Amino acid sequence: MKYDIFSSTAPAMPNPSKGTEFCKFLLSQASKDMREPLVPMAIPALAAHLTDVEFMYSDNKYYELCGQMGHLIGPSGVGKAQLSHLIEAIMRHFRQHDETEYKKLVDWQRQMKTRGANKEKPERPEVSFWFPPADLTNPAFIQNAMALEKLGGRTQYLNLPEVEMANRMCGGHRQVSQTVRNIYDCQRAGALRATADGVTGNPKLRVNITFSSTPEAARAFYKKDLTNGFFGRIPFAYKPRGERKGKIPRQGQYDEEFLKKLDSYIVRLDNCKGRFVVKPLNKIADQLAEEMANLADLADDDMLFELSHRSIFAAWKKAATLWILNDQTWSRSIGEFMTWFCYYDLWSKVMVFGDMFKGGEILPEDTQKCGPKNMLDSLGSTFNEQQLEALRLSLGKSKEGTKHQLRVWKFRKFITYSAETGLYTKTDEYLKRVES
């Protein structure tokens, strides 16, 4: 496996190189300590510039690149606000568009007030917001989705600085799960909704969205949704608290020079149209599927395996966006970032929510002690069945699953068995994989 998601250390971001120069540029004004989590978190905003674009996934079906999400998790004061600074630079043309649309609404409201009760009222103008405010209500969200669909199917992007704001946007916490699933799968809203004007509709939800929160707020928000498909659809970027340092992290400026270069990349997104098949993207998705099965077998954890399916798909969408930013050209570095996106998402889930996979109630800083474990790494280079059995029992797993786990490990060539000694030995193939 390329990365160890069971370690307390985050998977290290690949060095941007040929094909991913954009990532280096994107992070040039962020403080060094926040660069890794900002890359996956910024891509949903970038992908919101795409319209009429589809890519074929490994399952031989075409998918739009909307529905990209991200949740930045970190302790208070860790630097999460840097995401909003970067987002504002990326979305400034959306802001300009929305200011014009908002002016239309203000003018219409002024006319409504000045017309007498017996005079014909002007029709509400058809407006659409590409970067709606974070405090929009559910009726406004649905109405905006209807307008965007009518006016060409653009993607709206939302950046919610507090994850609880999703409750207001979705009409309550019970509705968040269904709304997020419809966003991720680019489905329709699911019901006819009444707006302030009495208009009803069931628009396709082309939405990209990012959240931010502390670990405690994230655990409380997803507590009852770990197994219903909602939690797995959200890619996470966890930034743990670092060492205590007596220095304030330095940030750069999103000045005119930066914005001009940024526009040269964004125009590639604006101009990209059509259907694409990028075979290297799907090859890596297939490789990741095999690696994720290996990881789940090492931990004997079904939930980890189920979560990995959507981690791969979300990483694939991000990498497809990087492919467009690289002038529709593949490079090995894009594949390295795709792999990292997948592992970083799963690592973040294990670090923040690992104990909750089993329904635990433990403080966030202790989750890594109780979440999924690579059990083979916890054993010596040579071990017997009883040692694995004892390890499983200490982790709350059944004694009966020991023999099955040994068979799976042998099948995947992680271990060999000596009938003469009755001992299992880690293979050179496994040890090399761990070292790499």
Describe the structure.
The protein is of the alpha/beta class. It folds into two domains: 21-112 and 121-366, Rossmann fold; 375-435, no CATH class. Helix content is 47%, strand content 10%. The chain has 16 helices and twelve strands. The protein has helices spanning 21-26, 35-47, 81-90, 92-114, 138-150, 165-170, 173-184, 215-222, 256-271, 279-299, 302-325, 332-353, 367-370, 385-394, 402-411, 428-435, and strands at 53-56, 62-64, 69-73, 156-160, 193-194, 200-201, 207-213, 236-238, 274-276, 382-383, 415-418, 423-426. It has a four-stranded parallel sheet, with helices on both faces. It has a three-stranded mixed sheet with strand order 2-1-9, with no helix packed on it. A hairpin with a 4-residue loop joins strand 11 and strand 12 (423-426). Helix 10 runs parallel beside helix 12 (332-353). It is elongated, with a radius of gyration of 24 Å. Mean pLDDT is 90; it is low at 360-365.
Nutshell version of this structure?
This protein is an alpha/beta fold and 436 residues long.
Please mark out the parts with pLDDT under 50 across 5 or more consecutive residues, or reply none: 360-365
- Give the count of helical stretches: 16
Structural class of the helix and strand makeup? alpha/beta
Strand count: 12
Shape: elongated
Strand order of the largest sheet: 4-7-3-8
What's the mean pLDDT score? 90
Note the run of SSEs as H and E: HHEEEHHHEHHEEEHEHEHHHHEHHEEH
- How much of the residues is beta strand, in percent? 5-15%
Give the termini distance in whole angstroms: 7 Å
What is the CATH class of the largest domain?
Alpha Beta
CATH architecture classification of the largest domain = 3-Layer(aba) Sandwich
Q: Please tell me how large the radius of gyration is.
A: 24 Å
Helix fraction?
40-55%
* CATH fold topology of the largest domain: Rossmann fold
Biggest sheet architecture:
4 strands, parallel
Number of domains: 2
